[in-house]
Design a protein that fits this description.
The complex is a heterodimer of chains A (about 350) and B (about 425). Chain A is of the alpha/beta class and about 350 residues long. Helices cover about 40% and strands about 20% of the residues of chain A. Chain A has helices at about 1-20, 25-30, 55-70, 85-90, 105-110, 155-165, 175-185, 195-205, 235-250, 260-265, 270-275, 280-285, 290-300, 300-310, and strands at about 35-40, 45-50, 55, 75-80, 95-105, 115, 120-125, 125-130, 145-150, 170-175, 190-195, 210-215, 220-230. In chain A, strands 1, 4, 5, 6, 7 and 13 form a 6-stranded mixed beta sheet that branches. In chain B, about 30% of the residues are buried. Chain B has a two-stranded antiparallel sheet. Chain B is mainly α and about 425 residues long. Chain B has helices at about 1-10, 30-35, 40-65, 75-80, 90-100, 110-130, 140-155, 160-175, 180-205, 225-250, 255-270, 270-285, 295-320, 325-330, 335-365, 380-390, 400-425, and strands spanning about 155, 210-215. The chains are: A alpha/beta (about 350), B mainly alpha (about 425). The interface of A and B includes residues 10, 21, 52, 82 and 315 of A. Chain B: Belongs to the binding-protein-dependent transport system permease family. HisMQ subfamily.
Chain lengths: ~350, ~425
């Protein structure tokens, strides 16, 4: 009896959740705010500044979606999530959209019932070594001691890499990035390995960043992207095409500075369709015709967002690398707006 | 004879010598140093070694503290100013003090509100903590929760006012019936208060703009303020709950006893962090979507349950330590259960339990930092998340954690000193 009541309640809750999830776009419009899950803090990707305003690479994607859907990049309720709470927050409907440097993997997409709407940052595991070690390639690291965060996929990737190349290493397990940073600086290990973006962010905080280099080898694939709940394809389409609009804008040369001018006197039909002066793309999504224009005007195109938050001019100092446009030899490739 | 006497005069004193001060080696600091620091060779060696260690620590710490930088706007500027010198970068405190104390989202022009609530807290707890203050002050203690709620959360004054009114109605009903039956009065009062609250909640929304402070959502609470809110509310709620649970566990009514035993044993068998995850994650699945069951409220409920189970066991220890004769004395005076407990048993049992209760309270206050794991920005969450993750301050560890440790130490040491004072006050053994 008790059991059936329990499962009954579960079913009701599940149905209600399903009903609510079927129209996230309407929910967001009715609420007038986008609930966006972000990390509790990762340098360059998401962190509040001294005035308590969130900024960063992932945050910009949230704001772009809010600008496109609601017309206001500040109509976002940022919900900080940890690695442990992020998926339940999304699944339970507490947030509409999760932009939290989350690796797109098979099991998260299929088994956890989420839809990754694209990739906004192609990351991969790398190595950092002190310059004075005189190493220029990860394959020279035979016999090295390696600081490695336990219980992560990086640990497995590391073992695979060294076995494939038939060289040996000695792991120095650490718990957190902060601990790894300290162990590495104290000389407890020859090299520190984690995601390349994390290495760059870590190195940027060193007193003498120039004394450390990040080796060219990237030994794993970590495509980081925003995600939404599985089963609400309309909402998935909205967020996916906002992200692609940012990427396409860079390819087409539309920036936050020239977006107004492009709208009025562009001769490129694809730019016209993207910015809503031609065609009915916005209407198909259930948004205003100029949804992409609003997103680009508020946050800039993908390249601007990258440069402003994590690019080479910032303390994080990441090169575009894999995240360059496909025309520049990178992987950023937006499907046609047609 | 007299000659002899006269001759002996120079050798016999007829007045007392005035008292001399003891030699300088046998008094004051010199004596203290000689006796407690250099009384034997091993002591001398230990003293010198200890002095050397103290010197080492201070010679490292003081330049770091006194030579610190307070005015730069990020860690890179700090390093430029220090130019290789080993000193603290305290600029992070001057730039982010408001986030450390109030969280990222509390309106900046409203900082006086939690500050006022904090100051009033001392006025409110004083009559409870110190028995020699005028009794009418307790009236303010009763009003304080409503004032503090209004100050911190904002909104219309009528919301806490109607809650106060509902509580008053409940109390009046209770005091009418309490002569006949304690339990009946208790539940009647609770029911009346609840009904009044529901009735009022239809009226208050219409008055939402009246006497209103800018409302602040619970999720915007943060920093040390959040630790204080959780600590104060949970300690003050868990004490009465703990007493009820402890009494319930001793009850002769099997159902009540069973409920209390199961509750206490279950809660004590589960780590607090698990309960917090339940509050944050699991409840989100069970509650219908769209219900905005306040996260702070969920966390308060969980921490209060956790603390009250522990306090119940501490008080049960106090009850068990009372000699059987005290219970029998109460019975022989013809007191009923409520009177016996209130007048004879609990005052003694609680006195015995003070160290244990304080222990739980201090532990609970520090445990409030666990909420950082469920992504609430309390003081620790604030440091671990936003501040250390900002490109401006990533790499400043000692200054931030030292500041957090200092705040917690002040509060916990204060609680502990108060409890020792209280124990001395309540000491009746030697009379």
């Amino acid at each position: 009896m008790n059991k059936s009541v329990f499962f009954g309640a579960l079913t009701v809750a599940g149905l209600a959740a399903g009903a609510a999830a079927a129209s996230t776009l309407d929910d967001v419009k009715a609420r007038g705010k986008l609930n966006c899950g972000v990390t509790t803090g990762l340098a360059g990707f998401a962190a509040p500044n001294a005035n308590g305003e969130w900024e960063g690479f992932d945050v910009a994607v949230c704001r772009a979606v809010a600008a496109a859907v609601l017309g206001d990049p500040n109509a976002v309720e940022f919900v900080p999530t940890t690695g442990k709470t992020r998926f339940t927050a999304l699944a339970s409907g507490e947030i509409d959209f999760l932009a939290r440097n989350t690796t797109w993997t098979f099991s998260r997409d299929v088994d956890l019932k989420f839809d990754f709407i694209g990739v906004n940052y192609y990351d991969g595991q790398g190595f950092m070594v002190p310059k004075e070690l005189g190493v220029s390639s990860a394959k020279d690291l035979d016999g090295a001691t390696v600081c490695i965060q336990t219980g992560t996929t990086t640990e497995l990737n590391l073992a695979d890499f060294f076995r494939n190349n038939n060289i040996s290493y000695e792991p120095v397990p650490v718990e957190t990035n902060a601990e790894g940073q300290q162990q590495y600086l104290a000389g407890a290990c020859d090299t520190y390995t984690t995601d390349a973006s994390g290495l760059a962010a870590t190195r940027a905080t060193f007193e003498n960043p120039g004394e450390h280099i990040i080796l060219p080898e990237i030994i794993s694939k970590e495509p980081l992207g925003p995600l939404v709940r599985h089963g609400d394809n309309d909402w998935g389409d909205v967020t996916r095409w906002v992200l692609y609009a940012l990427i396409a804008a860079e390819e087409l040369g539309v920036t936050s500075a020239n977006v107004e001018e492009m709208t009025t006197n562009t001769t490129n039909p694809e730019v016209a369709r993207l910015l809503g002066t031609e065609g009915t793309l916005g209407e198909m999504l259930g948004l205003e015709a100029d949804f992409a224009k609003k997103a680009i005007a508020s946050q800039g195109n993908y390249g601007e967002i990258f440069a402003k938050n994590i690019g080479e001019e910032t303390p994080i100092g990441l090169a575009r690398g894999l995240n360059a446009q496909w025309t520049d030899g990178g992987l950023m490739y937006a499907p046609p707006f047609r | 004879m007299s000659d002899t006497h006269a001759a002996s005069v120079p050798y016999v004193r007829d007045t007392m010598l005035p008292q001399n001060a003891p030699p300088s080696t046998a008094q004051g600091p010199v004596k203290w140093v000689r006796e407690s620091l250099f009384s034997s060779i091993p002591y001398t060696i230990l003293t010198l070694a200890a002095l050397y260690v103290i010197y080492l620590i201070l010679s490292g710490f003081l330049p770091w503290l006194l030579g610190g930088v307070w005015t730069t706007s990020n860690i890179r500027e700090c390093r430029e100013v220090l130019d290789g010198a080993q000193a603290g970068c305290f600029s992070v405190l001057t730039e982010r003090w408001n986030q450390l104390l109030f969280g990222i989202a509390y309106p900046q022009d409203g900082y006086w509100r939690p500050t006022a609530a904090f100051v009033l807290l001392f006025v409110a707890v004083a009559p409870v903590l110190f028995g020699n203050l005028p009794r009418w002050l307790i009236l303010f203690t009763v009003l304080y929760p409503f004032i503090a709620f209004w100050l911190i959360w904002g909104g219309s004054l009528f919301v806490p006012l109607s809650a106060l009114l509902a509580a008053l109605i409940g109390y009046v009903i209770y005091s009418r019936i309490v002569k006949k039956s304690f339990a009946g009065a208790f539940f009647a009062g609770l029911l009346a208060g609840g009904v009044a609250w529901v009735v009022f909640s239809f009226i208050t929304p219409q008055l939402s703009g009246v006497l209103a402070l800018e409302p602040v959502a619970s999720r915007n609470m943060g920093g040390f303020m959040l630790n204080m809110i959780l600590g104060v509310i949970c300690v003050s709620l868990s004490l009465p709950l703990g007493i009820l649970l402890a009494l319930g566990r001793q009850s002769s009514l099997p159902i009540i006893k069973l409920i209390c035993v199961v509750f206490i044993e279950f809660i004590r068998g589960v780590p607090l962090i698990t309960l917090l995850f339940v509050a944050n994650v699991v409840l989100a699945y069970f509650l219908p979507p769209g219900t905005n069951f306040d996260l702070i409220l969920r966390v308060i409920i969980m921490i209060t349950m956790f603390a009250s189970a522990y306090i119940a066991e501490v008080i049960r220890g106090g009850l068990a330590a009372l000699p059987r004769g005290q219970y029998e004395a109460a019975d022989s005076l013809g007191l009923d259960y409520a009177q016996a407990m209130r007048l004879i048993i609990l005052p003694q049992a609680l006195k015995i339990s003070i160290p244990g209760i304080v222990n739980v309270a201090v532990g609970l206050f520090k445990d409030t930092t666990l909420v950082s794991i469920i992504s609430m920005f309390d003081l620790v969450g604030m440091i671990r998340g936003p501040i250390l993750a900002s490109t401006d301050w990533n790499g400043v560890y000692w200054e931030l954690w030292g500041f957090a440790a200092l705040l917690f130490f002040v509060v916990c040491y204060g609680i502990s000193q108060y409890s020792q004072w209280l124990e001395r006050q309540l000491q009746t053994d030697h009379h």
